[in-house]
Write a sequence for this structure.
């Protein structure tokens, strides 16, 4: 019997996809860049993605209709045209948040189940929060739990009874389990 040569093998100089990792011609195809540089927002199929510019340059080789996702999905536009932030935006929001709320350990689970934040569960709150401002909700150990909209100002929270509503729930990290199929 004669041995057949495999048809899929080509010389390493003809295709960058088959080059070895030690080759200086093409960068490795696995994983993100160690130093990705600048980031930007991209719209793809009514979803907004937060992605490094180096990944955007690499994705230009793929057709838009074939592209499933790109980077981190931080929100989506609804059919009515309004924009909804998703829980994947939490890491970006937590790093840049101006208004923050910290919860007591006893009310963390209530917030993670999708309930609003009451004054009795409030541990700390930053100054100069006005009603309607977006806030990031943290645990007392500075772990970001989610985000919401403030219902009261900082001064009003001090006078409020323990059952008063402080933050309206928008999203929390418990959504990873509750809405696993949609994310």
């Amino acid at each position: 019997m004669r041995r057949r040569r495999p048809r899929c093998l080509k010389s390493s100089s003809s295709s960058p996809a088959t080059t070895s990792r030690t080759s200086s011609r093409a960068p490795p195809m696995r994983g993100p860049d160690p130093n990705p540089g600048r980031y930007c927002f991209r719209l793809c199929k009514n979803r907004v993605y937060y992605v490094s510019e180096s990944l955007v340059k690499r994705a230009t080789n793929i057709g838009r209709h074939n592209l499933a996702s790109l980077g981190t999905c931080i929100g989506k536009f609804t059919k009515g045209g309004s924009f909804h932030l998703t829980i994947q935006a939490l890491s970006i929001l937590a790093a840049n948040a101006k208004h923050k709320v910290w919860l007591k350990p006893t009310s963390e689970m209530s917030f993670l189940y999708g309930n609003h934040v009451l004054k009795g569960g409030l541990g700390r709150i930053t100054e100069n929060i006005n009603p309607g401002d977006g806030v990031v909700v943290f645990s007392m150990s500075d772990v970001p739990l989610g985000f919401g909209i403030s219902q009261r100002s900082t001064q009003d929270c001090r006078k409020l009874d323990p059952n008063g509503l402080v933050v309206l729930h928008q999203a929390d990290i418990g959504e990873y389990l509750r809405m696993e199929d949609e994310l």
The longest helix spans residues 105-112. The CA atoms of residues 54 and 169 lie 35 Å apart. Residues 3-32 have pLDDT under 50 and may be disordered.
